[in-house]
Design a protein that fits this description.
alpha/beta; TIM Barrel; three-stranded antiparallel sheet; 12 helices; 39% helix; pyrimidine biosynthesis; Dihydroorotate dehydrogenase (quinone)
Length: 340
């Protein structure tokens, strides 16, 4: 029904407006008595065999919603009813910011892809904290970044502000230095500044009564040498894992006319590269740390491929938009079948 009727209608309109419309729709529909239960019956698959324990956390199933979809933690309780084992909110910054000028979100229908240059648009970390206080048992990841106006030499301050503000309200943290849509942000992926940033966050982390897992989200455009640096950085800083991968700046093999738009590309064109990065990290590190696989998961087969390459969990974003909420359950069913 989604792909045959709902998606064609939604895809007639501006992507960003559709995003806000669907958020309002899901929120309002979920207020109707019985609807939450109906969603859970349709999409949620409860099975002990799906549970995963990683970095001290228990995930109900290994399929999560990637950051960027619910940036401001506005809909995580409702989105969990679609069967996700965890929800990652953000990217959040210390101060509110409007992001890049519109239009900044583009569908590439021929490629089953999306280009975005949102630019960390969000209402600021404190606003999100107030919403997270209403969490009804959803496992939450907090994806944090820096404000556009903050120079890289002061970036650590921004990450520390977000870390402290979110600490009591998220289950794990994700350090985002890999978005292509904030000027110079990816320079923080270089070995020295990244090591300093992660060490600073770990100092804060270990001062808390109970530390929280910290993960690093990396770009798919890193070279093999840079990926080896990432492995070394994880070992040096003792962070808990890596999310592989963010969006790409590559445009190789695209068919759509609007492929020339500036921004990060997600969706099917990213499937192979994100899996390659997962496999490289897993093999070269001898599976020394957990990996969350994200990028181009549009089918259960795509998810299984990432898990077999070395991912411990997977996340959806563009595949969720193109394939609909049934994809979550299809992946979980395939994982169960594989385990039998």
């Amino acid at each position: 029904m989604y792909k045959a009727i709902i998606r064609p209608i939604l895809f007639c309109f501006d992507p960003e407006k559709v995003h806000h419309f669907t958020f309002s729709l899901i929120r309002n529909i979920s207020k109707i008595p019985g609807v939450k239960g109906l969603f859970k019956k349709m999409y949620l698959l409860n099975d002990k065999a799906l549970e995963r324990e990683l970095f001290g956390l228990k995930f109900k199933n290994p399929v999560g919603l990637a950051a960027g979809f619910d940036k401001d933690a506005k809909l995580y309780n409702e989105l969990a009813n679609f069967g996700f084992g965890f929800i990652e909110i953000g990217t959040l910054t210390p101060k509110p910011q409007s992001g890049n000028p519109k239009k900044r979100l583009f569908r590439l229908k021929e490629d089953s892809a999306i280009i975005n240059r949102m630019g960390f648009n969000n209402g600021g970390v404190q606003e999100a904290v107030e919403r997270l206080k209403k969490n009804k048992g959803v496992l939450i990841g907090g994806n944090i970044g820096k404000n556009k106006v903050t120079p890289n030499e002061n970036a650590v301050d921004d990450y520390e502000i977000c870390f402290n503000a979110l600490f009591d309200y998220v289950d794990y943290f994700v350090v985002n230095v890999s978005s292509p849509n904030t000027p110079n942000l990816r320079e923080l992926q270089d070995k020295e500044p990244l090591t300093q940033l992660l060490k600073a966050l770990q100092v804060l982390n270990f001062k808390k009564p109970n530390s929280k897992p910290i993960l690093l989200k990396i770009a798919p455009d890193l070279t093999d040498d840079q990926l080896l640096d990432i492995i070394d950085i994880v070992k040096t800083t003792k962070i808990d894992g890596v999310i592989s991968t963010n969006t790409t700046i590559s445009r190789t093999g695209l068919k759509s006319n609007n492929k020339v738009e500036v921004g990060g590309l997600s969706g099917k064109p990213l499937t192979q590269r994100s899996t390659e990065v997962i496999r490289f990290l897993a093999e070269k590190s001898n599976k020394a740390f957990p990996i969350i696989g994200v990028g181009g998961i549009h089918s259960a087969e795509d998810a299984l491929e990432k898990l077999e390459a070395g991912a411990d969990l997977v996340q959806l974003y563009t595949g969720f938009i193109y394939e609909g909420p049934r994809l979550v359950k299809e992946i979980n069913k395939a994982i169960l079948k594989k385990a039998q």
